């Protein structure tokens, strides 16, 4: 099998091989442009996220793909599902707003508390040290839609790095030897 792949690559002249590499670069740059465009349109640094745990069941399951917006002129409401980042954690968290704190607001900053639907306690244990509330600056986005289980591929690729490298290798080989 691999011998046939190498034979195809050997039969290409330098110009064809360079064209294939250029095509691959165009695909990658197009994907990046689409991502950046989505960031501008949605106002979110991450317009699409994958639910990584079961903390939001039954609303969202592990592997669901969420579509986010983050328009700063909209105020947070109780019951809304937000994706937030806290200091000291790299991975954003998807949970529901359960309480607003509006007493003694500074600069009209609304503070809020979150909790996973499947969790028994609120998220104060997940927040940074001495942080008891979240603000809009912690929010990555608000859930506006989802596709069930589509993100399982991402989870498998993170949990099984060999699977990720095999898929990337197959895609790279396909792009290099495909002549159309």
Explain the layout of strands and helices.
Elements: H1 2-11, H2 14-42, E1 48-50, E2 65-69, E3 81-84, E4 93-101, E5 111-115, E6 139-147, H3 152-159, H4 161-177
Antiparallel strand pairs: 1-2, 2-6, 3-4, 3-6, 4-5
Task: Quickly describe the structure.
This protein has 180 residues and is an alpha+beta fold. Helix content is 36%, strand content 19%.
Primary descriptors:
180 residues, 19% strand, 6 strands, 36% helix, alpha+beta, Umud Fragment, subunit A, 4 helices, six-stranded antiparallel beta sheet
Report on this model:
It is elongated, with a radius of gyration of 22 Å. A six-stranded antiparallel sheet has the order 1-2-6-3-4-5. It starts with a helix and ends with a helix. It has a domain at 48-152: Umud Fragment, subunit A, CATH 2.10.109.10. It contains four helices and six strands. By secondary structure, the chain is α+β, with helices and mostly antiparallel strands. Helices cover 36% and strands 19% of the residues.
